[in-house]
Batch of 2 targets.
Target 1
Amino acid sequence: MPTVPISAPPTFITVEEHRDLTSSTPDSFNSIPPVLRHKEANVTVSLDPPLPGLEGENIKGTLYIVESVLAFVAASGSGFQIDYPSITLHAVKREPTRVSIYCQLDETPEGQPLPEDEDSEMREMFIVPETEDSLEPIFEALSICASLHPDKAGDDDEDMEDEMFADADESGGGFETFAGGEGEELSAVGRAALAHLESIIVYPPGREPPAVVEPEDGVNGVNGTTEPETSEEEDLTQTEAQSLPNGTH
Amino acid sequence: MLIFSVFKTLTDQVVTVELKNDLCITGTLKSVDQFLNIRLDKISVVDPERHPHMMAVKNCFIRGSVVRYVQIPATAVDTQLLEDATRREHASTHKR
C-alpha cells in the first residue's frame, strides 16, 4: 500500500506496557495496541518524490517505528505512515557530510499486478536523526518490524499444504493407489520407481517393509524370506478384524 | 524451508541479489530469516549509473518478497546434492 498521509501519530503502546498487558491472559488479544519499537524525536525526513501536501526537502518531526506501521509526524502536525510490506529495502547510508537511514518504498497502488516494465512507482526516503548513535537502533527496529509483515500472497507452500490433506477416497480425488493386493502388479517402470523411492526413504528401526516379491522368480524364489512376513501381516489383519466387533460393545 | 536452510549455509559468502525492480546489489550475506529477508554487508551496486541512490550505503536489509534472484558462487553449493534434496523435500511434502 502506498504512503498514506496522516494527521496524528498512530495508536501504540510501549514495550513495558505490552509486557504488563500480556503478563496474564488479556481480555482480548485483538484489542492489544501494537508495540512501539522505537521513537525518535527531532529527525529530519526527506522524500523523493515528495508527498503532496508535505512539501519541502528536510521536514523536521518525530519518527514512530510501531510494529504495525512506520509513521512520521511533522512539527506542523501533518505526517505520513508507511506499511512495512512496501519498504523494499532499508539501509544505513554514511556520506562524508551526513549519515542517514535510506529507505526504498514500493508505491505501486494496491491491487495492481506487479508490473514488468519501468513504471512500477518508487519513492525514496532519507531519515536523518539528530545524533549518529540513533542510526543503529532505527535500523534494527525497522528490520524487526519488517520481518513481522511477511507477504500473504499465495505461494508454492500454500498449494502444497492443500495437497497434503487431499482425501484419498473422494470420488475423482485423483489418487490411484497401489496396495499390492490380489491381481495388482507393478510394471517394470513402477518397480524401478518403487526401488528408487525405497532407497531414499529412511525407515525407523523395526518398521522396514517386506522386500518386494518378484513374480518372475517363481515359487521358491530368491525372496523366500518374505512369505512368513506376509502371512504374519495377514494374521494381524484378521485378528484386528475379529476384535473390532468386540471392541464396539 | 529448504531454501532458507541453503541460505543459512551461505552466510559470509559474497552474493548478488537481483530485486524485482531490477536493482542488483552485491554484498556479503550476513543473515537470512524464514521469509528470506536478506541482510547484506559491504554492498556495492552492480550498475551505479542507473541506481545512484545506493552510494555510500554499507549494510542493507532487503525484504524477501522483492527478491527476484540470488546469484551465489558456484563453489559454494553442490548442485547435485541440492537437486536431490529438493526432490526429497518435494516428495515428503506431497506424501499422502
Target 2
Amino acid sequence: MDGRFSYYFLYSVFIITAVPLLSTQSSVEKINKTMNFFSESQFDGGSQAANSPAAAANRDTFGLIPLTIKQIGEASHSGDDRSNFNVSGADVVNVSVVGMVFNIVERNLDVTFTLDDGTGKLDCKRWLNEPFDRLQMEDIREGIYVHVDGHLKSFKGEKHVAVFSVRPVTNFDEITFHFIACIHNHMRTSKVQKIQGDGENMNSIPKTTIQNGTNGFMSTQSSQNSVPFNFDGVKGVDQMVLAYLQANFGIEKGIHVDELAKKLKLPMNKIMESVRTLEDEGVIYATIDEFHYKAVQQAAV
Amino acid sequence: MDTQNPAVLVNGDLLRNYVGTRVRTVIQVVRPDAGGLTGRSTDEKQIVVKGTLPSPLTTFVEVIGVADTAQSIRAEIVTNFGDAFDTNNFNQLCQLANGDYRHLFI
C-alpha cells in the first residue's frame, strides 16, 4: 500500500523541480519523459494522472484530467457537442478532483455530496448500480479528504460530476500532488495551444529542422497543422517547399518554382533539388509543365 | 458549483498578504496551547492556531480558517495530515499557487 503512495511523493518531487524550468521547450520534453516513465509504473488504476502526450492530443480518447474546482467552474462547452467541456482550450470529459466531503445525502439509488477543494465547491453524484458502489461509499464520511474521478456534466447551467470512483485520501502528499498535477496539465495544454497557434504561421515563416526537434513529442498534432512534423526523411529546405505547396493546395495549376524561390528566399538550385526529392518521394507532382508543382495532399496524415 | 468562499493556499511567508481572508495551510505541530496550538510552517515560520483541534493530533495538520494576523489563524477546520508529509513540495506548491498559476486556484 505504502509503496504505491511513495510514487506520489517521487512524482511530485520530479514535477515540482521541473515546473520552474518549463519555460523552455526542451524542459517540456523532459517533463513528458518523466510523466511517461511514471505512467508505465504501477499507478493506481482509478486515477490516471499521468496522461501521455499522445493520448491527450488524440481527440478520440480522453484521459482523466486533474482539475481544481475553480477550473471546472470556468469550463465552457466545447464546439457543437454540448456534452463536452473545454478547459483552457483542451477538451475535458472525465475529471479527477481532490477535496473535502460535505453534505452527504444517501438515497436508495444514489449518494450525493459536495466536494470542497479550497478553490470552490462541486456537487457530486454517485449512482449505486452495483454492490461495489455501495461498498465504496461506506468508507466516505463527512469531513474527510477524498479523491473523486468522474464524468463532468452540466444541468441547467450548473456543473456537477457523475462519479464513478471515490476513495479516501490516506497519504496527504496526494493533495499536494493533485494540485501540482493540475498546474502541470494546465501548462501542458496551454503550451500545445501556443504551438498550434504558431503552427498556423508556419507556412509564411518556414522553420528548419530545429523546429522539428523541439516539437518531436507533438507528432500526433500534425493532422491539425499543414506542416508535416513527423515526416521522416525530409530535411529543412524540402520541408519548406512541401509546406508551401501544401498550403497552396487549392491552386489547381500548381506553383511555379520561381514563386517558391522568391517566397521562401532560397536559391533556385536548392529549390530544384528539393522539388526533385519531393517528387521522388511522391508527395508532389508536376502540373502544367516541369516548372509548376502541386502537393499530392493538403496536409500530412 | 460555488466558488464564493475559497481558501488561499499559503505558507508562513504568504500569510501576511492574506490577513483577514480565508486561508489554508499545512503546519508541523510544535506544541498544543490552551485554545489551539503553535506550529511551524513549511517555510520555517511560526504560526499560532486558535480553534478546536482533533484529538489525537498527528505531527502535521492542515488548518483552514481566517488569518487573524501575519502569524496566526483562527481555525474553522483542523485536519490531521499524518506524521509524514513532504513540506518542501507543499511549500513550492504555495508559491506556484500564488504566483503564475493563481488563476487556477482563486
